[in-house]
Structure formats: C-alpha cells, structure tokens
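Researcher: I'd like a structural prediction for the single chain below. Treat it as a standalone chain; there are no partners to consider.
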Amino acid sequence: MKKVLIISPHPDDEVFGCAHLMHKLIQEKKEIDIIILSKGEAAHKECCPRDVYDVISHRKHLTINANKLIGIPKERIYFLDFPDGEFDSIINNINYHKKLDELIKYINPDCIFYPHPFECSPDHEAATKIINDILHNSNKKLFLYCVWVWYHMPIYKISQMNFRHSFYITSSKGNIKEQAINIYINNKARCGISYSGNLPKYFLKAFQWKKELFFTAN
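Model: Treating it as a single chain, here is the predicted structure.
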C-alpha cells in the first residue's frame, strides 16, 4: 500500500472504522486520501431544529480536526453531496455515480477501503452497492471495514463473513483512535447531543477494542 483511499458514508465513519489503520499508514509515510460521501446534514433532523448549514459546517470542522490529529491534512479530505439518510434514493442515479467515479480516478489510489456489506445501516449498505458498481472492473486492491457491523448485524450473518480473508490492525501507543472519536462525540449542539447524532452507548463501547477488523473485497 503506497496510496490509500478511505471512502466514508458520513463524517466520522472513517475514524470509527479506520483510525488505527490510517495512523499506522501515516507512520509508514504512506499517502492517505478520504472521501466523505455526505455532509452529515441529517444528524439532528429528529432531535432539534438545527439549521442544516450549521450542522454541515460543524461536522466538516470536526472531520478536519479529527483527521488532523491522525496526521491527514484537510487538503486530502474531499466532501461530496450524497443525501444524508437517503442514499438508497440515489443507488441508480448516474450523476452521483459519476461524481464519485471521477474523484476516485483523480485521486488514483493503489487500494480502497469502504464499508462492509453487512453493515445493516441503510446509507452504508447503499454506499457499498454504489462503490461496488463503480469498481466492479477495477484492478485496485479493495478492502472492507466495519462500523455498524457488530451493533446492527443479525447473529446468523456472522457465519457468512469470510474470516479466512480478513486481517486486523492493532492500536498504536496512546490510542489515537479514542482521541479522534472524542473530537467527534464530545462536541455537542445546544440540544446536548453530539454533531454525529445520538450514538448508542453500546455502539461506542465497541470501539474501546484495541483492534480494527478488515476483509478483502476482491
């Protein structure tokens, strides 16, 4: 891996799924780019009347700060405009496919990390389908990361996960991942909920594990 691309459905998924990986690669002097598919505008849609542009501005700011801590400059973070919470509505929309495809070609990575198809989160599952469609003839190395897998995925699907083609990354000293996650979840709107939304307690507890699990996709 010399040039790595992380594709994240929302601002924060890249840290939840890949912070250990990104920090390790940065230490090894690799190049990392991040594509955030949505701007996270729906995070407070159900809890308070926050101005959507205020939410977008804060989430972008937190993304830049969290990844700067890991070692990734803001110039390597790209934000697209997939509709937060409604990815399934654009699965067959050629315009969104084209935007992502052109950006991937512009970045031209050696390998790409994106969400596991068993995420059981509508936006994540739709994102994976869109990415698979774009990359189906790609000769790049493709890998899958986990965010909501262990929280939402039905137990029966565990037997369908190809652990023979998996690997894990162990946290570095100081646990940069925990610090990066805290940048996201400790910054709260006036309603008292973080700008990432009201994340479940047991979902957050899962990320105290000192390892990140990945699967090969091709």
